[in-house]
Specification:
Largest sheet of chain B: 4 strands, antiparallel
Largest sheet of chain A: 6 strands, antiparallel
Number of domains of chain B: 2
Number of domains of chain A: 4
Helix content of chain A: 40-55%
Oligomer: heterodimer
Strand content of chain B: 5-15%
Distance between the termini of chain A: 13 Å
Strand order of the largest sheet of chain B: 3-4-2-5
Distance between the termini of chain B: 25 Å
Chain lengths: 507, 310
């Protein structure tokens, strides 16, 4: 049988889906590093999130069990021992008497990502109590929360803004895999920001101490100059002003009054202004000599960014400035947060669900195949329908993997239900093709396509509102349904029509 | 339906008297047959308004729409003990078992309550005698501010969905009566399952309402098939065209049911959202058999006879 363009398109789409799903990952060995404690020796020795551990001290590591066995054999020890960790990006050698400060997980079996309800994890939907957030406020909230979560070293986390049909703004936080106990605590409390010189607190977050931070106003905040350094790289400096209350200005005067000028770095005082977020040091700023003992309510914060090109340096400076500004506004949110939805799904229950869904998907596939075979009693036609049905689900999964969508239970329900409508369309095509009448096969297939397009547009129209309604929680369902019927109409249906045309011409 | 399929006549292969009789019967009584779905729709509408007068809402909402906590405890925990102990302290507790698909063994217990997470968890820990961690349990909480809003939006979405579907149908057929017949059949496909769920006091979740949206698109294809075969392709007699659509359409509905029924018949170890979607689609498809082949056929046949389309 000669392959038509439409059949080639189908084959091409299937190959792409195969590459995007990457089913060969099923056979990959090793364990995946999902997070590394920042500021640890493990981190400084080059281990990073996303690397794959293949060996420890020469022993092969194929699974989580292998990993915990080797680590349990080695630690804890009194003396520091040498441990060589082999990853896909090279070897790291550590000397330690405690296990490396990393979290590992088993290797993903393919590039298809499952949602929290199937893989386990926590998800929270947060809004401001008794008021609506503007989109700027929401983006501040997201930056602040991201900063704080980074401080805790929690990885594999997604924070995103969600807007629904009635214009409410929410912040959605998803933590896959492990479920951190403190997600709720983290969200129910305001972040704590403190600026200290030595052991003395100068000011804390919240509008009592810091009355305002200049942002997005070029007169008191911005990138001031960019220059080329002697080694050829570029650097840009920024500054922005913060406004303190008179009490904290007074405290600043007292504390800095006691400091000396730094002999190694003249122009600056001997101690730095240390910034703490939830009691962890996040940044240290040099204090200019001129500020010694001054009770000023306006402090200019300065910093710089570097890069290989002028543009890179500018961007780096901009990022650093935003980062510092966000840290400083932590604790000064003018509203309380309310967790409106908090789901924690245990990974083992999720696994049970996923296994059942796969069994269900296969069952549906078999039942439909049997019904069609009973009806048509032709292996060729039945195989063509089954192949088309499979292609549709496979290409849909491929697209989902390509865009890293998290497929939750409703999303998979959409794919399975889509298999049902897909088959319906094939039935219409076969029926028109075998119908008697004076018209030619082309004419009849054309009529079948009218019905199919009609059904396609109604289902898309029906699912469209779900993309926005209900805080995006059912977006996955709408997306996969629309996607699978679109794959049907654009790729598999035309190819199937060609297959049927060929086979009826042969007869 | 089998009986009907056998009896319905294909004039191209005329054989046997009974088949002929059915065609005659249908020609004579198709208008009268419309009374059956009409009565069912009226009963459904009446029951839905009765539900509204009783609980102040069109549906029974589960905790994802009314606010509250769902805790899933893993393992073979005795349902009756927990039920008894909780019934004393909490109102409106509902407990369902979660069983494994293949072995039928209980893998967990789902407990729903309108109370807060802490209240319910502490009480459960007291009864069970151990701590609930994220290894042995799952907890889902929806605040009432979210759920109210959520519910309103999903209902709005359902209305928008219905309107969009109607527009597509009007664009497709560009004639008033046939389009309205299709839209009316879809409307009945929603109303009948909803009334049945209300009668069973079945609690609908957010995913369940999403399933109604999908039903709008899912049930309409047999109606499109019928209408386009009857109006657009005028080969063979009217009855013949209707009968051919019926044969194709029933197979379509059957395969669609094959896709959604297994989930609801023999699988309980599935996420609730999943089960709801399939249950509602299945009920809708069953209603669709009636509404396409009696309601829609009746109206379109009437229309064709009036307009002289044979």
């Amino acid at each position: 049988m000669k392959l038509t363009i439409r059949l080639w398109i189908l084959i091409f789409a299937l190959v792409l889906a195969f590459l995007s799903i990457a089913p060969w990952k099923y056979f990959d060995d090793g364990v995946l590093i999902t997070s590394v404690e920042p500021n640890s020796t493990t981190f400084s020795e080059g281990l990073r999130q996303g690397q794959i551990i293949n060996s420890i001290n020469g022993e092969e590591i194929n699974s989580i069990e292998d990993y915990s066995n080797s680590i349990n054999k080695l630690f804890p020890t009194v003396e520091k021992t040498k441990i060589t960790i082999g990853t896909d990006e090279g070897e790291s050698i550590l000397f330690a008497n405690t296990p490396p400060e990393i979290v590992v997980s088993s290797m993903p079996k393919s590039r298809i990502k499952t949602g929290l309800d199937l893989s386990g994890g926590s998800k929270a939907l947060v809004k401001a109590k008794d008021r609506d957030l503007s989109s700027e406020e929401l983006s501040d909230l997201i930056s602040i929360t991201s900063n704080r979560i980074n401080v805790y070293g929690i990885s594999d986390i997604q924070i995103s803004p969600v807007t629904d049909l009635s214009g409410n703004n929410y912040m959605s936080i998803e933590i896959a895999g492990a479920t951190p106990k403190d997600l709720e605590d983290l969200l129910s409390q305001q972040g704590k920001f403190e600026a200290k010189i030595g052991n003395d607190t100068v000011f804390i977050g919240g509008d009592k101490d810091i009355q305002d931070i200049c942002r997005n106003d070029a007169t008191c905040s911005g990138i001031r100059s960019c220059n080329q350094a002697s080694d050829g790289t570029y650097f840009c400096t920024f500054d922005f002003t913060i406004y303190l209350s008179s009490e904290s200005a007074q405290r600043h005067a007292e504390v800095t009054g006691k400091l000396e000028t730094d002999p190694l770095n003249p122009g600056y005082l001997s101690k730095k202004l240390d910034l703490y977020l939830d009691d962890r040091l996040v940044d240290s700023l040099l204090i200019s000599q001129g500020l010694k003992g001054s009770a000023t309510t306006q402090i200019q914060i300065q910093g710089s960014g570097q890069g290989a090109t002028n543009e890179d340096a500018f961007k780096d400076a901009e990022t650093s400035m935003k980062h510092l500004q966000t840290i400083l506004i932590t604790g000064s949110l003018p509203y309380q947060l309310e967790i409106v939805k908090l789901d924690t799904i245990s990974p083992s229950l999720g696994k049970e669900f996923l296994e059942n869904i796969i069994v269900l998907g296969l069952t549906v596939f078999i039942i439909i195949s049997v019904i069609l075979f009973i009806k048509y009693r032709k292996v060729k036609i039945t195989l063509a329908v089954i192949l088309t049905m499979f292609s549709e689900a496979f290409i849909t999964l491929g697209v989902a993997a390509l865009f890293s969508w998290n497929l939750d239970a409703p999303a998979i329900a959409g794919i399975i239900a889509g298999m049902g409508t897909g088959v319906n369309d094939q039935i219409i095509i076969i029926d028109e093709a075998v119908s008697s009448g004076s018209e030619g096969i082309k004419q009849r297939i054309k009529r079948a396509l009218f019905i199919i397009f009609g059904a396609f547009f109604t289902i898309v129209a029906a699912m469209l509102p779900l993309l926005w309604a209900g805080a995006g929680l059912l977006k996955g369902f709408a997306l996969t349904t629309i996607l699978s019927v679109s794959v049907g109409i654009l790729v598999t249906r035309p190819a199937f029509a060609d297959m049927i045309k060929k086979s009826s011409e042969q007869q | 339906m089998d009986e009907k399929e056998q009896e319905k006549n294909n004039p191209n292969q005329v054989s046997g008297k009974e088949k002929f009789n059915f065609e005659k019967f249908h020609d004579k009584y198709y208008k009268l047959l419309l009374i059956i779905p009409l009565i069912l729709i009226l009963i459904s509408l009446f029951y839905i308004s009765y539900t509204y007068s009783k609980i102040g809402d069109f549906i029974y909402k589960d905790v994802s729409l009314s606010g509250g906590t769902t805790i899933t405890i893993q393992g073979d925990v005795d349902q009756s003990i927990i039920e008894k102990a909780l019934a004393e302290k909490f109102e409106g507790i509902s407990i369902t078992r979660l069983t494994d698909l293949r072995t039928g063994e209980q893998v967990g217990l789902i407990i729903e309550s309108s109370s807060s997470v802490e209240e319910l968890r502490l009480e459960l820990e007291k009864i069970l005698g151990y701590k609930l961690t994220d290894e042995n349990s799952s907890i889902e909480f929806t605040g009432s501010t979210l759920s109210d809003d959520f519910y309103k939006q999903l209902i709005t979405a359902l209305l928008i969905s219905f309107i969009l579907m109607s527009i597509v149908i009007f664009i497709l057929f560009r004639t008033f009566v046939p389009s309205v017949a299709v839209i009316f059949a879809v409307f009945a496909d929603i109303v009948m399952p909803l009334a049945l769920l209300n009668y069973l006091e079945f609690k609908i979740s957010a995913a369940g309402i999403a399933a109604f949206l999908m039903l709008v698109g899912y049930s309409v294809d047999t109606d499109i098939l019928l209408t386009s075969r009857v109006l657009k392709n005028q080969q063979g007699s009217l009855n013949h065209r209707i009968y051919r659509s019926f044969k194709t359409g029933m197979l379509m509905t059957l395969t669609a049911l094959a896709a959604v029924l297994p989930a609801f018949f023999f699988v309980t170890g599935l996420p609730d959202s999943f089960r709801q979607i399939f249950l509602i689609l299945a009920l809708g498809l069953l209603a669709d058999i009636l509404n396409t082949w009696i309601t829609n056929v009746g109206i379109i046949k009437w229309y064709c006879k009036k307009k002289g389309i044979a």
